[in-house]
Amino acid sequence: MRFEEALAAPGRLVQVWGEEITDGRRVQAIYSLTDVGAKQLAWRSVPAAQYDALVEELNARGIAIAGTEATCEYVWIITATGVEVYGRRSKVLDAEGDRATLEDGSVIPRADIARIVSFAEPDHVYRGIKAELRSGQAIGLVTEFSTAADAGAGYSRNDLLMETGWTSTLGVAIATWAGAAFHDQIVG
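Above: the chain sequence. Below: its structure as tokens.
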């Protein structure tokens, strides 16, 4: 799909920006967000110097900025009242107002959240973001299983750090919504 066609697509659209790449350019992508996940519709390379003007132009068209990182499958949008997180096949988290609704439909009251934690199991395969509740229970909010980490001994801590930077970025946003502390167990 061409970029202009993506901008005219029906439904909720967001703009996602990549870091500056060679020759002073950045990647600008358009995603569609639905209950069946985030789908990239189109992307283009634009001069980094045009970033502010292009963001303003799309904001004026009702296309807000969303976040993602190349090493994760999630796209998130921070709204005036919370944080929404979309995977490839579903909406995984809707933290809005006084509660967070998980992918399976379970609800966590915001007042029950003591801390938001980014984590990785010792084998690095299962990782993501969890909520530690005042009751002592921990609940996974946005998690993944890494097939790369599961592949064997060649997977290092450096690989883990490179692949899980998104957990800090998104974890801080969720903690801000929750009014809770954030702890990054991956970094230490």
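Helices lie at 3-7, 51-60, 147-150, 157-163, 165-178.
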